UniProtKB/TrEMBL annotation:
Molecular function per GO: acyltransferase activity, transferring groups other than amino-acyl groups; hydrolase activity
Domain named Acyltransferase: residues: 23-348
Membrane-spanning parts: 28-46, 58-79, 100-120, 158-177, 189-218, 238-269, 302-322, 328-352
Protein name: Peptidoglycan/LPS O-acetylase OafA/YrhL, contains acyltransferase and SGNH-hydrolase domains
Keywords: Acyltransferase, Hydrolase, Membrane, Transferase, Transmembrane, Transmembrane helix
Organism of provenance: Rugamonas rubra
């Protein structure tokens, strides 16, 4: 246990109290993403009308909220760190790029090598000029924004993250948010949320970027609660889980996309607020569980690599006799495939992410993955 703690524990020092449930929430988020890719790869093996297939669809739906939870946490961290102290834009971006690129670059090279080894599976265009442009777009995290399928499928979310890193310090500086009263900043964040929804309806702008605004609002609400001392009622764990369950039900309903995303953003906001404000409550305590937090600490490595490892595992499963490749095998294999993805991602974390991107920082609020 000490060996694992030494390598996967990150939340030390002044920020540990806040970061521990956040680390666990990241662990939950990446497990949800795992379910999305597992159920997607398992879909061809399922009878479309079976109970097993229905369970897979429900898990897939719930799993999609994993990336949204990442966005809320990232919105909270980045906005909070920028509001806490003035930071020069270029050093701030250098730190964020250092957080993204060593691990992304390692996985990018792995995908590139596999694309050359298995050209039938490659997304890279055959013509040299097109291939060079495509690889450059992926290196700059522009491919999803330009409508191209990214080389690393999950890297579309990094394009969202990078845009948020660019936009947030500019908005804080342009509108002088540090000088404004909290009520003004809250109103501003609601206006940003409204602009995101309007941009989606008018221009098809990415709607899930609303989650970043929810994370920033979470930071402001925590500050308000601390200013009020004990005069506000503590968040209720049962209500937080009920709100999340209701949001997932809303996702199943034939409603407009903005309504679904707003409901999910509100539920994830409430879940995070409850865990951060009551880390000693039963829900916050659950997210402080060491194995879940350690998974959260390596969640970036896991996020980038687990899909490739899962696909390799399903290719191996495809060689089993037809009578063996049924739902029972699929669900029974889930723990084994999860273990395989954990092992491979842990190696990436220990060899690349931790030594190159997670060196000790002077500002504890930035510890861990954002």
């Amino acid at each position: 246990m000490n060996w694992l703690s030494d390598r996967f524990e990150l939340s030390h020092g002044a920020g540990a109290h806040t970061l521990r449930p956040m680390e666990g929430l990241r662990g939950l988020a990446v497990l949800l993403v795992f379910l999305v890719h597992y159920t997607t790869l398992a879909a061809p093996w399922q009878d479309g009308g079976s109970a097993s297939a229905l369970l897979a669809r429900l898990l897939h739906l719930a799993g999609n909220s994993g990336v949204d939870l990442f966005f809320v946490l990232s919105g909270y961290l980045i906005y909070g760190s920028l509001m806490a102290r003035r930071q020069a834009f270029l050093p701030f971006m250098r730190r964020r790029l250092l957080r993204i690129y060593p691990t992304y670059g390692a996985v990018f090279l792995l995908y590139l090598a596999l694309s050359l080894a298995f050209p039938a599976e490659s997304k890279i265009p055959p013509a040299a000029p097109d291939a060079a442009l495509y690889l450059l777009q992926n290196l700059l995290l522009l491919a999803p924004l330009l409508g191209e399928p990214p080389l690393i499928t999950v890297s579309w979310s990094l394009s969202y993250e990078l845009f948020y890193y660019l936009a947030t310090p500019l908005l804080i500086g342009a509108f002088g948010l540090r000088r404004q009263r909290r009520r003004w900043r809250v109103a501003f964040l609601f206006a940003v949320g409204g602009a995101i929804i309007a941009g989606h309806l008018a221009l098809g702008a990415p709607l899930r970027s609303l989650m970043f605004a929810a994370g920033a609002l979470l930071h402001e609400m925590r500050g308000h609660r601390h200013e009020m001392g004990g005069r506000l009622r503590p968040p209720n764990e049962g209500m937080a889980l009920a709100a999340l369950a209701c949001a997932l039900i809303v996702l199943l309903m034939p409603l407009a996309a903005p309504l679904k995303i707003v409901a999910l953003a509100a539920a994830l906001y409430r879940l995070c607020l409850c865990c951060f404000e009551r880390p000693q409550g039963w829900l916050g305590h659950a997210f402080c569980c060491a194995p879940l937090r350690w998974l959260g600490n390596m969640s970036y490595s896991y996020y980038l690599l687990h899909g490739l490892l899962l696909k390799a595992a399903f290719v191996a499963l495809a060689h089993l006799p037809p009578f063996a490749a049924g739902p029972l095998l699929l669900w029974g294999a889930l723990p084994l495939l999860l273990a395989i993805t954990l092992a491979g991602s842990a190696a990436l974390f220990l060899l690349v992410e931790r030594p190159l991107s997670l060196a000790p920082r002077r500002a504890p609020v930035l510890a861990g993955q954002a």
